[in-house]
# Entry
Amino acid sequence: MTRSFDQLWAETFRHAKMNAPFYRESLRGINGPPALSEVPLLDKTTLSERNLDFLCVPRERIAELVTTSGTTGEPLLWMLTDADVRRLARNEKLSFDCVGLTARDTVLVAVAMDRCFMAGLAYWLGLREIGCGVVRTGASSSLLVLEMIQRVQPTAIVGVPSFLRLVADKARESGVDLKNSSVKKAVCIGEPIRDAAFALNTSGKAIEESWGAKVYSTYGVTELANSLCECDAGQGGHLHEDQLHIEILDDAGQPVADGEVGEVVATTFGVEAMPVIRYRTGDCAALFRAPCSCGRTTPRLGPIVGRKNQKLKFKGTSLYPSTLTAVLEQSAGVDAFVIIARKESELSDAIEVLIHGEASVLAMRETFQARAKIAPQIRTATREEIELLQMPPTARKRRTFVDLR
Ligand SMILES: [Zn+2]
# Structure
C-alpha cells in the first residue's frame, strides 16, 4: 500500500527529532509534525559543520560509509544502515526501470565503484535489483571500456558524459565501430545532456551520434541517497515520491510555479541513518507535475540549469551561465571560449565573453541577442589566453565560467 505524503513526512519528522542531535535541537518545542514549509531550510554549510549530528543510529548499525565528491566544498561523510542500502537499491531500480532496463540487459558501469563514492554502489545495487548482468569497468580506462564492449556485448552503459565522449574518441582512433556496437542506451550522470527546454545539448548530441545509442539523463545527490532518471520521453527525471519530496524555491524561499526554475530543496523519506529535511541542494531546475507521456504520473525534475550561486543578474533579467555556454557551444566558428562574470552593482553583473575562432564579435552579438536575449560584452582572444582562464595553475578542473563577483 502506498503511503501518503502526510504519513511519510510525520515519520521522518518524528525519527529525526527523536534521534538526530541536530534535529533534537533545531526542532525543539515543535510538537507533532508541522507543515513542512514551517521547518527552516537546511544549507550545505550547516550540514557540513554539524555532519555527524545528523546521525540517528548507533555506529554499530552502519553498513556503508561514503563521502560526497566535494566539488562544492568540504566532502561530507555520509552513512547508511542496511535498510538504507536496500532503500538505495530500490530507488535505483525504479530509476533504471524508467530507462526500460530488464533482466535481459547487460550493463557496463563506467563509474567508480570505490573512492568512497555512493553513485557506483547505487547503480550496481539497482541493476542487480532488476536482475541485469553488470560489468564494472569503472572510468579509469577508456581502452578497457572499449575492450569489454567488444568482449561481452553490453546493451547499455552508465557513465559521465565527458568520459563517454572520451571513449568515443578512443574508438575513432583505434578504428572501433562504436556506432554499431551492442550498446543502445547510455545513462548519463553528473553533467547535463539537455538544455532547459529538454533539447539535447552539444554533449548529449555528440554521445547519441558517436555511440548510436539513446541517452538518458539521471540526477542524484549523495546526501539524499536518491536519483531521478528520465524515461524514453526525455522530459525530466521521474521523482519517486515515497522516497523523496522536492520543493522548488525562489530566492526568498517561496515556492515557484510549476515548470519554473528555482533551487531544488529536498526532504528524504524512509531514511534511517541520516535523514535530511528541506535540504538546499544549490542546484537549480524546474519541477513538472503534468503526467508524462510514458504513463507515469510522478513529478519530473527538469535539467539542472546551474548552481544557485552562479545565477547571473543582468540588466533586469536573471540567467545561468549554462544558457550562454549552450549558445557558444552551438555556434560554428567558436573554437574556444570563456565567460567571465564581475560584480557591477547590487542589481547587475557585468558579463564578458571571450571567444577564439572564425566567428566575429558582431555575429556572436547577434546570436546572443537572438538565442539568449541578452547582449554581453564580447571580445576575441588568443587560445592561450582562454586556456589560462579555463585552467589556471591552481585549478583542478577545467571551467568555461569564471566567477569574479
Ligand atoms: Zn516518463
